[in-house]
């Protein structure tokens, strides 16, 4: 009996170990593909930004279009934005059966919203715009770093990424209770994208923020960024949900995102940020940056940075025109540079201060005119745009330095190795090691950091000797059963207490024995989903894989070793996966240990080919570029209508033709756009846009 028990125990341990190995491999696949997608988004954004930086508009109309292509109209001034998003002009029809809001909001309004969203009801656009308007007013009064104390409540609850998964937020409130004067919450960014109920989550969080402004705190995440929203579904879902008022709601949300605080500090000891830190993280600078200027933190704006340099150089008595006459001669001919008045004596400090303010303001206006930039707000001169008597000798940060601080806070990840290096996996932010964490904690007298940004299998994870805590609140993030969600509670002793959960209605009704079988089935389901996504990725790079395989097939036998197969696949996909371990799931075993790679690729093509029998090479191109094509389509669709107008296409093609040195007349561009408009309705929808690429590929 004893031997039998030991044997059963050994079998069980092997079985559990194999399940865990399968789970970890599945996890690596999902995470690698996710990060590769983020990297593609940043590369695409940088490509368009490069085109914009090197494009010379031939008219003010072109200049206006190009300057607004990426900022999506955030150059609305305060009054213009409120007029465009005027909620008072919208009437709520008598047939509307959803929740009603009146301001100032009360706890009853929040309860009504929660019940309405559980019943799949929607909030009327008037109330949404009104809520966004009030939220924006409140956020504008907040500092970049919110300060929270555990003295005023029993504990503070910190939640990580939610990503549009409303069921997770409901479960958190069910387990932990609703926000109240005795229950504070910090929501650490990434409220939107990927999930289908991003808007509902925003509405709930903003409602509680206005009801309990001292107890509810929101940090900005890397997905509170309109450029990221182009790819990951929030923008498209919002426009589809509200065809009539979706554009106004989207514009207001984009502006609200800009005003979200960047960090939260609990008892001056625990720093909560969405992504991470770097070896150059400066909390003093972070407190003073103009966070509302970063509509997107994917990339610093070169033109605005050059303007900032002009301001600094002019203040210091330098002349940028003399340093670079070729680059600015044309601009100066259109807009002459103002000459500052004679400086008054330093003895009269009041007069000298006025002279400095007036001179700087004139130079800023001149720089804006050079590139036709209009600011999003009617702003008074502040620390980052004005030099006063008290800080003439103080730090004067460039736009690039400020952008880098925000970018690292929102995009960085911890790593086990020492040091700090560029995050090439995501394409944004950096990797920071335990030594960097230690230096920042010591410099600002902190106990530990709490961050989110990374999905963890158990919902949370410590690293850097328990000095960095990652918390992730979106359960079933990749697939049902892929991961748990979690939140953490901190009391006055600042000792973290974790609560884990999984928002899965099926599992809640099962017995213990049934749950064990259900867990195995979930692992198999998640594993199948991961390998399906990986095979799609492999198929999308068929041409590159063939070239890589041929490099190992010197004798043109059509076969390579399985070891060379693993090396070649990694050289093409750069996913950092253990291909030798994954091989049994992707490649059928062979007696001689050789792989007929063309036959293997044909099998992949058969698996992915649609019912329309599109040729494999064409399908490969569409699979590989569909996400990028969707993002490009949304970039060109500047008015968020879901359609590309002829004017939008015309201006964008001018940008491409300038980069590719292709001479095209206006008539030629008009002929091109008409040929893409297959149904002749005067606009290009996404299917027509995709069909144009398909036809070009076929002709090639």
Automatic annotation (TrEMBL):
Catalytic reaction equation(s): O-phospho-L-seryl-[protein] + H2O = L-seryl-[protein] + phosphate; O-phospho-L-threonyl-[protein] + H2O = L-threonyl-[protein] + phosphate
Cofactor: Mn(2+)
Domain of life: Eukaryota
Keyword Metal-binding on entry: yes
EC identifiers of the protein: 3.1.3.16
SMART domains: EFh (SM00054), PP2Ac (SM00156)
Enzyme class: hydrolase
Gene Ontology molecular function terms on file: calcium ion binding; Hsp90 protein binding; iron ion binding; manganese ion binding; protein serine/threonine phosphatase activity
Annotated keywords: Calcium, Hydrolase, Manganese, Metal-binding, Repeat
EF-hand domain segment(s): 540-575, 624-659, 664-699
Keyword Metal-binding: yes
CDD domains: EFh, IQCD
A single BP term in Gene Ontology: detection of stimulus involved in sensory perception
Family from the record: Belongs to the PPP phosphatase family.
Annotated protein name in UniProt: Serine/threonine-protein phosphatase
Organism of derivation: Lophotis ruficrista
Lineage: Eukaryota, Metazoa, Chordata, Craniata, Vertebrata
């Amino acid at each position: 009996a004893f031997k039998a028990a030991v044997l059963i125990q050994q079998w069980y341990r092997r079985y559990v170990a194999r399940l865990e190995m399968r789970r970890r491999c599945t996890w690596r696949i999902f995470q690698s593909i996710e990060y590769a997608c983020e990297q593609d988004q940043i590369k695409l954004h940088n490509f368009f930004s490069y085109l914009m930086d090197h494009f010379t508009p031939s008219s003010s109309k072109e200049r206006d279009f190009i300057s607004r292509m990426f900022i999506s109209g955030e150059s609305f001034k305060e009054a213009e934005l409120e007029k465009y998003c005027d909620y008072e002009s919208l009437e709520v029809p008598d047939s509307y059966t959803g929740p009603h809001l009146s301001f100032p909001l009360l706890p009853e309004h929040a309860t009504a919203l929660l019940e309405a969203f559980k019943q799949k009801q929607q909030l009327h656009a008037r109330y949404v715009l009104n809520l966004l308007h009030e939220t924006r007013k409140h956020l504008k009064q907040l500092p970049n770093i919110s300060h929270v104390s555990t003295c005023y409540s029993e504990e503070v609850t910190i939640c990580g990424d939610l990503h549009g998964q409303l069921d997770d937020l409901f479960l958190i409130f069910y387990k932990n209770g609703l926000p109240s004067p005795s229950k504070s919450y910090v929501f650490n960014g990434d409220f939107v994208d990927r999930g289908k109920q991003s808007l509902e989550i925003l509405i709930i969080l903003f409602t509680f923020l206005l009801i309990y402004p001292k107890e509810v705190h929101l940090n900005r995440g890397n997905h509170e960024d309109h450029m990221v929203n182009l790819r990951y579904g929030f923008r498209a879902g919002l426009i589809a949900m509200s065809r009539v008022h979706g554009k106004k709601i989207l514009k207001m949300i984009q502006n609200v995102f800009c005003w979200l605080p960047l960090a939260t500090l609990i008892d001056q000891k625990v720093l909560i940020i969405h992504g991470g830190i770097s070896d150059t993280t400066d909390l003093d600078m972070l407190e003073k940056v103009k966070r509302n200027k970063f509509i997107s933190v994917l990339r610093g704006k070169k033109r605005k940075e050059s303007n900032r340099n002009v301001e600094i150089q002019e203040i210091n008595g330098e002349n940028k025109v003399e340093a670079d006459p070729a680059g600015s001669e044309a601009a100066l001919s259109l807009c002459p540079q103002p000459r500052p008045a004679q400086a008054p004596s330093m003895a009269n400090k009041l007069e000298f201060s006025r002279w400095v303010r007036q001179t700087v303001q004139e130079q800023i206006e001149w720089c804006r005119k050079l590139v036709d930039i209009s600011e999003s707000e009617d702003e008074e001169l502040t620390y980052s745009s004005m030099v006063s008597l008290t800080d003439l000798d103080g730090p004067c940060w460039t736009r690039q330095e400020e952008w880098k601080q925000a970018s690292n806070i929102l995009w960085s990840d911890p790593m086990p190795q020492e040091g700090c290096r560029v995050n090439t996996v995501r394409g944004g932010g950096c990797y920071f090691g335990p030594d960097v964490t230690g230096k920042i904690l010591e410099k600002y007298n902190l106990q530990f950091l709490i961050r989110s940004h990374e999905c963890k299998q158990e919902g949370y994870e410590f690293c850097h000797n328990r000095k960095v805590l990652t918390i992730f609140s979106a359960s079933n993030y990749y697939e049902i059963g892929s991961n748990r969600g979690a939140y953490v509670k901190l009391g006055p002793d600042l000792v973290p207490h974790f609560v884990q959960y999984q928002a899965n209605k099926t599992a809640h009704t099962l017995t213990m024995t049934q749950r064990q079988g259900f867990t195995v089935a979930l692992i198999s389901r998640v594993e199948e989903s991961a390998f399906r996504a990986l095979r799609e990725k492999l198929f999308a790079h068929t041409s590159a894989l063939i070239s890589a395989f041929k490099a190992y097939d010197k004798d043109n036998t059509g076969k390579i070793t399985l070891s060379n197969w693993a090396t070649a696949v990694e050289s093409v996909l750069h996913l950092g996966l253990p291909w030798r371990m994954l091989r049994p799931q992707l490649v059928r075993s062979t007696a001689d240990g050789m792989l007929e790679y063309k036959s293997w690729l044909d099998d992949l093509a058969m698996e992915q080919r649609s019912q329309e029998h599109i040729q494999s090479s064409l399908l490969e191109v569409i699979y590989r570029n569909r996400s990028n094509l969707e993002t490009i389509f949304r970039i060109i669709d500047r008015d968020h209508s879901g359609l590309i107008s002829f004017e939008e296409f015309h201006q964008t093609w001018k940008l491409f033709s300038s980069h590719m040195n292709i001479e095209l007349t206006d008539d030629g561009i008009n002929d091109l756009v008409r040929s893409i408009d297959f149904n002749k309705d005067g606009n290009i929808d996404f299917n027509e846009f995709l069909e144009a690429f398909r036809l070009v590929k076929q002709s090639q």
